[in-house]
Specification:
CATH superfamily of the largest domain in chain A: Thiamin diphosphate (ThDP)-binding fold, Pyr/PP domains
Distance between the termini of chain B: 30 Å
CATH superfamily of chain B: Pyruvate-ferredoxin oxidoreductase, PFOR, domain III
CATH topology of the largest domain in chain A: Rossmann fold
Oligomer: heterodimer
Largest sheet of chain B: 6 strands, mixed
CATH class of chain B: Alpha Beta
Low-confidence stretches of chain B: none
Number of helices of chain A: 21
CATH architecture of chain B: 3-Layer(aba) Sandwich
Structural class of chain A: alpha/beta
Mean pLDDT of chain A: 97
Radius of gyration of chain B: 16 Å
Structural class of chain B: alpha/beta
Strand content of chain A: 15-25%
Shape of chain B: globular
């Protein structure tokens, strides 16, 4: 019986069915659930790695040792793992190796909108792109056969709407894949110049074989597919854009659906285009397929009609190609926006409030706490990439010592382990007068609560050795390490001021678990004593979604309040308890 | 052609569970089904939307302006925000609960007065109910999502047992009784 599977869940099922024995990932929306679901299969040894580079290297090691293996990451994670990727392309594999990368067109939960297909071409690594959950399972299974056949790692590209949509899947059984024997083979696996030169020749030959596969066999096995209907409009698409096009155009167009986006066929594309009056390339983000077509001399419409920005949809395609729009209902109500906010009871809120009171510049980072950039806290000056809070603060303070003592870096526990610790080593080694605040909420928060090396648990929730942040910071050469509970406002403010006042690097560990953790016990909701309330709005300054003003008095929404008590500390009239 | 249902609300209100449960119901009825969800940053107290589509064959998993047959709104302002996505013949089911968004809390913007009147004036087929009171009666404010599913179930032509089966499959056992009660209250 077919069942609804989330795209990421179907990938995990495909991993299990393909006989995968090892996986290592770093969480990142929209890729995280692949590894969470994979970890539910006992036959797959799954891990959260400290970062994507470690994950991919572990995965390649497992492959060389003879196991089918995978790693998963979001698009920006592939930047971190790019180093091993480019060389894994040269070494090839022993057991099949799949790297799953999830792009986020529209930036639902990301800091940029990069198109990972460029990595496939740049690293000369085969890339498949599924269009729904059934494809997710089928392509994942196929990727291991292809990878072992061509001796290459394979990339599986997802986008948010494929990764986070549920559709019907017919699941299958696990294939019995024993470990392949390991044989020492320096010519293949020791990538120093003499060996790598030989392997580069292999890589170039491999691409030619893969192109031949994409022209021919890929159509026989359904990975690439042509659907002939009306030939006035021809659509070339991969992934979610194929679904949008089908819904918008139905049988008014013919389709070339590409399941393999690197390498791309040449002849098949030219033949398809020759039989259609007008050919549209429907691809979100960059003109990746379009450029390929233009290089072939195939006349297509792509980014001249469609944007490189954001997500596409059936409505957009119908409007641009057919000039059709649906009628709908409207009101002229002014509707306030509802941006995401720090959760009620979030320990980051109190920390940002203290920083605002002190009035420092904040070198920010990637995580829930990036929301501290928004009103009313507005306490972030920069946010670049994982770990950059620390390294960028160092550069800032070195280049402009006048700013030291007036600026801090903030980043989470998981982000610190991911790539913050290297920046901290740099601060200690090259001695900048920088204050780093690690927001230790005992979990990887934004991606939905994953364990990490600081939490004392592994991906399955089993006990694991944990990194002591205090000892780690001391060990890299930071003499001034302090720990505070951010919800104790007065102590936190004093501690930050003290660290800023010294002329040496300092780390403050702001420690309080995420309010959403099931292990966190909440106090009963707080209430405002309306007689004591002066309506001064001091409690509103923290931007808590549960606190609002009603008829000149503060009011606390009992359905939301978790009794964290931060607003209580702000009330000079003792009106909140 | 598919029948398109949008579930809109505020991150944390339980829209994800509602869309999963609805997906179960529709799958059990033998339809092709697609459900599109929101994860990550946008879940943190922001405006959230999930799409559920069913029919003989569903291609795109998302719903666009003028396409929704039903919008199930967990919050009043969110009903207004997503109204343009409703078909002129579509049905709008609204929980009248109000949750202030941050720009309203900070005083930068105002929560519009009389949203319901404006929605009715748009020509939409509006059903408004207070889902919070029955949810609290069932045992928790968190059961608002299941109360609203009950209200949706009343307007869809599937047998009650299919909904109750899906509830049993989706909800943790210790919360089942509360959710069954919430569903019954929403459906009544």
């Amino acid at each position: 019986m077919k069942q609804l599977y989330l795209g990421n869940e179907a990938v995990a099922r495909g991993l299990w069915e393909a006989g995968v024995a090892f996986g290592s990932s770093y969480p990142g929306t929209p890729s995280t659930e692949v590894t969470e679901y994979a970890a539910t299969y006992d036959e797959i040894e799954c891990e959260w790695a400290p970062n994507e580079k470690v994950a991919m290297e572990a995965t390649l090691g497992a492959s060389i040792a003879g196991a089918r293996s995978f790693c998963g990451m979001k698009h920006v994670g592939l930047n971190v793992a790019a180093d091993p990727l480019f060389t894994a392309s040269y070494t090839g594999v022993n057991g099949g190796m799949l790297a799953i990368v999830a792009d986020d067109p529209g930036m639902h939960s990301s800091q940029n909108e990069q198109d990972s297909r460029h990595y496939a071409r740049a690293s000369k690594t085969m890339m498949l792109e599924p269009a729904d959950s059934a494809d997710c399972l089928a392509y994942t299974r196929l990727a291991f056969d292809l990878g072992e056949h061509f001796d290459t790692p394979v990339l599986l590209r997802l986008t948010t709407r494929v990764a986070h949509s549920r559709s019907l899947v017919q699941s299958g059984e696990r294939v019995g894949i024993p470990l392949k024997p390991y044989e020492k083979n320096p010519g293949k696996y020791v990538m120093m110049p003499a060996m790598a030169r030989t392997r580069h020749v292999f890589v170039e030959e491999r691409i030619q074989k893969q192109i031949a596969f994409c022209e021919d066999e890929a159509f026989a096995n359904g990975l690439n597919r042509i659907e002939w209907h009306d030939r006035k409009i021809g659509v070339i698409a991969a992934g979610i854009c194929y679904q949008y096009a089908k819904e918008a155009l139905g049988k008014r167009a013919s389709y070339l659906k590409l399941g393999c986006v690197y390498p791309l066929p040449a002849k098949a594309i030219a033949d398809f285009a020759a039989q259609c009056e007008t050919v549209y390339i429907l691809e979100e983000l960059d003109d990746y397929i379009e450029q390929h077509c233009r290089a072939l001399g195939v006349n297509v419409i792509g980014k001249d009609a469609f944007s490189p920005l954001g997500e596409y949809s059936q409505a957009l395609i119908a409007k641009v190609i057919l000039g059709e729009e649906k009628s709908n209902l409207t009101t002229d109500l002014p509707i306030p926006g509802r941006p995401p906010v720090l959760c009620v009871g979030c320990p980051h809120r109190a920390l940002f409030f203290s920083l605002k009171k002190i009035g420092v510049a904040v070198s920010g980072d990637i995580g829930c706490y990036t929301l501290g950039a928004l009103a009313p806290l507005g306490m972030m000056d920069t946010c670049i990439c994982m770990g950059a809070s620390i390294s960028a603060l160092h550069g800032r303070n070195k280049a402009n010592p006048g700013l030291a003592g007036k600026s801090v870096a903030v980043l989470g526990d998981s982000t610190f382990i991911h790539s913050g610790v290297t920046g901290l080593i740099n601060i200690a080694y090259n001695q900048s007068n920088s204050v780093v605040i690690i927001l230790d909420n005992s979990i990887t928060g934004m991606t939905g609560h994953q364990e990490n090396p600081t939490t004392g648990k592994n991906i399955k929730g089993e006990p694991a050795p944990f990194v002591s942040l205090e000892k780690l910071c001391e060990a890299v050469g930071i003499a001034d390490v302090r720990v505070v509970d951010p919800n104790e406002l007065a102590v936190t403010e004093r501690t930050i001021r003290a660290a800023l006042a010294t002329d040496q690097p300092a780390v403050i560990i702001s420690r309080r678990p995420c309010a959403l953790l099931k292990t966190v016990k909440h106090a009963p909701p707080l209430k405002v004593n309306k007689e004591k309330c002066a309506g001064c709005k001091a409690c509103m300054r923290i931007g808590c979604p549960a606190v609002s003003m009603k008829e000149g008095k503060a009011e606390i929404d009992f359905t939301q309040c978790v009794g964290c008590g931060v607003c209580t500390q702000l009330c000079r009239f003792g009106a909140i308890s | 052609m598919s029948t398109d249902i949008m579930i809109v609300g505020v991150g944390g209100q339980g829209t994800l569970l509602a869309s999963r449960l609805l997906g179960q119901v529709l799958t059990a009825q033998g339809f092709d089904v697609k459900v599109s969800e929101v994860h990550g940053m946008s879940q943190r107290g922001g405006s959230v939307v999930t799409y559920v589509k069913y029919g003989q064959e569903v291609t795109s998993p998302i719903i666009q302006e003028g396409e929704a047959d039903y919008i199930l709104a967990f919050e009043l302002l969110e009903a207004a925000r997503w109204l343009p996505f409703l078909k002129p013949s579509g049905k709008l089911i609204i929980n009248t609960q109000k949750l202030n968004p941050m720009p309203v809390i900070t005083g930068a913007e105002e929560y519009p007065a009389d949203v319901l009147t404006a929605l009715r004036a748009s020509g939409a087929d509006v059903t408004a109910l207070d889902a919070l009171t029955p949810a609290l009666e069932a045992g928790s404010a968190k059961a608002v999502n299941v109360v609203l599913l009950g209200a949706l179930a009343k307007r869809m032509e599937f047998p009650e047992e299919v909904w109750l089966n899906a509830l049993e499959k989706t909800v943790p056992p210790r919360f089942l009784e509360m959710n069954q009660k919430a569903f019954a209250l929403g459906r009544s």
